[in-house]
Design brief:
The complex is a heterodimer. By secondary structure, chain A is α+β, with helices and mostly antiparallel strands. Chain B has a single domain (2-76), classed as Beta-grasp domain (Ubiquitin-like (UB roll), Roll), CATH 3.10.20.30. A five-stranded mixed β-sheet of chain B has the order 2-1-5-3-4. The chains are: A alpha+beta, B alpha+beta.
Chain lengths: 754, 81
């Protein structure tokens, strides 16, 4: 049934309140079950052997001794994972990333796997596998990989997006150009033109829970997978396609998830675990170590970006351009393209041109990381915007307000905006007390803006009313950031009942139709829409049942505040029926009471944020401490404000780590040097100030409640806001993230010498 | 007749055209005619594509009717975290 998705300015009773989180007790008591918390009778331990080389030909893999070891039940190589989707490059890339074939493409690339009765036996077996490698030239730096003499990572990759189509393979997998107007003419009109180059290093999402799964696949082609994931339906489809299974015969159940941020949108070792299980005919559990998570799951890109912005003396930007080079790991992706699309999305520009390059290197396959690609582009653009404002002698917030995109602006990536929130977030920043707080010696303040698209996608939801009137909402989108509470609030709002009467569950893949992953800030937006419509269908059933119970036509029944009310003078003496009363009689009035909805939720509503940051930099050590931080973001409608604020704070916290410390460090041998939390330092509580938040609510016209996604945008501005703050604190422009103590000291030294 | 704007790598699949005029009532019709005219578009469509109609982005809704005179952009399909 089609439903109207338009915003209706509905007045709310429970939506917008701060109810208790349904998973809170489970998580603080340890009862919550994560990826590694499942077990099955006879389960084996699965371990994966990984390449110690950045790039190497695999000449031979000898598994004979491992297979003979007592307690080893299966050994798997690429020979056990044939390409069943011949001609589908994308699926082949997924398969090859899960298990290398003729070449290892990065340090940590899987080359073999074992399943054994216990961990010690499995470890011993890994040591008995002998792999003969022939080391090949490697490249890990994005700019080096674009040079003509760089070693070619994939000989089947020819640059897409250039005319004519190249005849030679290249590490540049795609060139993407966006923009409108005439930038050269625009720069000619400018009184001030600033050009600057920037670099950002590779970072990992840093989710605390490693990848983990329990796989069980029998020789009859039927299987089950328990896994930590952002999208169990997508995992099912991918694993089934790779292994030649029928989708309906593989049931995937999602565990609680200990963080994902985009890193759990791809399969890594799950297909291998299924193949081990099929070969051993026993359940196999695989839990990645932290070392493996860093080396062989999907971090975000490192980048190299050139920005040029011109403006007139009165503060109007006349032209803006950028060239953005993003490394994708060894497989083609779209991360450079997304950088090019997002870089100037905050601004109203007559002349703009961005060119993104996606570049292959010998590093792990890149995965999404919360508003993927936007933070790096924002770092480069927002740093330059500050430089232009300074050159013009303008306040950086006023300069941004003057040039901000608004309803009717043609976005730099193409379409014309509807109602958007960048202007209001900037006005809120301008008026925020944080901007007027005094700074001390060695302290600096910075601010920056950020944009993310958000999207919706396929969603399927059930709502069932129990015999006691309690309600079960069954969804297929993983609860990464509090969606179960938000969706419970939505169902309660529609039904007119207390939140406590609704229990929201995430179902396995056998229980609902397909649901897309929880990515693109879509969880509450899309499943919320489906929950609204499922509840409204349930209300129709409740009205029908009430009509039977009251012996009145269904047209005479209205649903008001959780009760069926008979209307009209002839029925005015009938008492209303509560949901509980109707539910109690359901066996005799038609059976179970349920509602259902499947929807492709489009028009998720773009999202903007503006952040303010104060830092203090120790000029002797270069150490930076964030002393105050404020996030202002448009949420459309905050269904559960605690969770919205949590998303804002979480994005800022991750951005602070990215800006100041986090960095993949590669040696000359192309191997990762810091694959652990001791040497790859994410911020802990003592590193962070209280992160203040301000929620703005500019309704999304394409959602009944006005909801926009909120999960990603908050990580976009921090690199730039902190970069501007640090630069203001030390008086030297920082153009390389992370702004770690050695880099700050180097910048200070270079400034002093010049 | 719709004026459809192309961006990113989609332009090169249409011989470098920034805008193309195409007769179509719905997203499905638009995509079908696009492939008829530019066979190289097939790869992009298979990988996923988004259609912006008057600033509202549709990823999977083939049945969407495109109003006469609407601003139509073809965008590469995006991924999120």
């Amino acid at each position: 049934m089609a439903h109207d998705t338009s915003y209706t300015d509905q007045k709310f009773n429970v939506v917008g309140t701060r109810v208790k989180r349904p998973d809170g007790v489970d998580k603080v008591t340890g009862r919550a079950r994560y990826g590694a918390d499942a077990s099955a009778p006879g389960q084996l331990v699965g371990l994966i052997l990984r390449s110690p080389h950045a790039h190497a030909r695999i000449k031979k893999i000898d598994t004979a001794r491992a297979e003979k070891l007592k307690g080893v039940k299966a050994v798997v190589t690429s020979a056990d994972m044939p390409d069943l989707n011949v001609g589908n490059r994308d699926l082949f890339a997924v398969l090859e990333n899960c298990m290398a074939r003729d070449r290892a493409l990065y340090d940590g690339h899987a080359v073999a796997a074992v399943a054994a009765v216990d961990m010690n036996t499995a470890k011993q077996a890994l040591k008995l596998i002998k792999v003969s490698y022939e080391k090949l030239p490697h490249v890990t730096d994005v700019d080096e990989a674009m040079k003509p003499d760089a070693p070619i990572i994939q000989d089947w990759v020819f640059t897409v997006g250039v005319e004519p189509t190249p005849k030679k393979p290249s590490n540049v997998s795609m060139r993407s150009e966006f923009g409108h107007g005439d930038v050269e003419a625009g720069f000619a009109q400018a009184d001030v033109v600033i050009e600057k180059s920037y670099k950002t290093e590779q970072t990992h999402q840093g989710y605390i829970e490693p990848h983990a799964c329990l796989a069980s696949l029998g020789p009859d082609g039927q299987g089950e997978l328990w896994v930590t994931t952002q999208g169990h339906f997508v995992f099912r489809n991918t694993c089934a396609a790779l292994l030649g299974l029928e989708v309906s015969r593989l049931k995937v159940t999602s565990s609680e998830i200990g963080g994902g941020f985009g890193g759990k949108t791809h399969v890594w070792m799950e297909p291998v675990a299924l193949v081990l299980s099929r070969k051993a005919n026993r359940p196999v559990k695989v839990v990645m170590s932290r070392d493996e998570v860093f080396r062989a799951s999907g971090p975000t890109c490192s980048t190299s970006i050139d920005v040029k912005i011109g403006a007139t003396r009165d503060g109007k930007i006349t032209a803006a351009s950028a060239e953005l080079r993003y490394q994708d790991g060894p497989y083609p992706a779209i991360w450079g393209m997304l950088g090019a699309m997002t870089s100037y999305a905050c601004y109203d520009l007559k002349n703009v041109k961005t060119v993104g390059y996606d570049v292959l290197v010998n590093r792990p396959k890149v995965a999404a990381y919360r508003a993927p690609s936007a933070p790096m582009a924002a770092f480069a653009v927002e740093s330059t915007v500050d430089l232009v404002a300074a050159e013009l002698g303008m306040d950086p917030v006023d300069f941004r307000i003057l040039n901000a995109a608004k309803e009717g602006t043609r976005a730099s990536y193409g379409p014309t905006y509807g109602p958007i929130g960048i202007g209001p977030t900037l006005e809120a920043v301008k008026n925020h007390p944080h901007m007027r707080a005094k700074l001390k010696k060695n302290q600096g303040r910075g601010m920056a803006c950020g944009f993310w698209f958000n999207f919706g996608g396929q969603t399927c939801t059930d709502l069932n009313v129990g015999i006691d009137g309690s309600v079960t909402l069954t969804v297929g989108t993983i609860d990464v950031g509090g969606s179960r509470a938000a969706l419970g609030l939505i169902a309660a709002e529609e039904l007119g009942i207390p939140y406590d009467m609704v229990k929201t569950n995430v179902a396995d893949t056998a229980s609902l139709g397909h649901n897309d992953m929880t990515e693109g800030s879509r969880g509450t937006f899309s499943s919320g829409m489906a929950a609204i419509f499922a509840a409204r269908e349930t209300i129709e059933v409740l009205r029908q049942r009430a009509a039977v119970m009251l012996d009145v036509p269904v047209e005479a029944i209205e649903w008001k505040e959780g009760q069926a009310v008979a209307t009209g003078l002839e029925h005015s003496n009938l008492a209303p029926l509560t949901l509980k009363e109707i539910a109690a009689k359901s066996p005799t009035t038609g059976g179970p009471i349920a509602g259902h909805n499947e929807v492709v939720a489009d028009n998720a509503g773009v999202s903007f944020a503006s952040h303010i940051c104060d830092v203090e930099v120790d000029p002797e050590t270069g150490a930076t401490r964030v002393i105050r931080y404020t996030v202002v973001q448009d949420a459309g409608k905050a269904i559960h404000p605690d969770y919205v604020e949590g998303q804002f704070q979480g994005g800022a916290a991750q951005g602070i780590g990215w800006a100041l410390n986090e960095e993949y460090i590669y040696g000359k041998d192309g191997c990762l040097q810091n694959a652990g939390f001791l040497d790859y330092r994410i911020p802990v509580c003592s590193d962070l100030p209280f992160i203040d938040t301000q929620i703005l609510e500019i309704p999304n016209p394409n959602h009944p409640y006005g909801v926009r996604g909120v999960g990603e945008t908050s990580i976009v501005p921090p690199l730039a806001a902190i970069g501007n703050a640090v630069s203001n604190a030390v008086g030297v422009r920082l153009n390389h993230v992370p702004m770690s103590p050695p880099r700050i000291l180097k910048a200070l030294e270079e400034a002093a010498n010049s | 007749m719709l004026r459809v704007s192309l961006s990113g790598s989609l332009r090169s699949a249409a011989g470098g055209a920034e805008n193309i005029d195409i007769e179509a009532q719905s997203i499905r019709e638009l995509l079908n005619r696009l492939v008829d005219r530019y066979p190289l578009m097939r790869k992009h469509l298979d990988e996923g594509i988004a259609v912006s109609i008057d600033g509202e982005i549709y990823r999977d809704n083939w049945a969407k009717i495109i109003p006469e005179g609407a601003e139509v952009f073809l965008l590469p399909r995006i991924q999120g975290g």
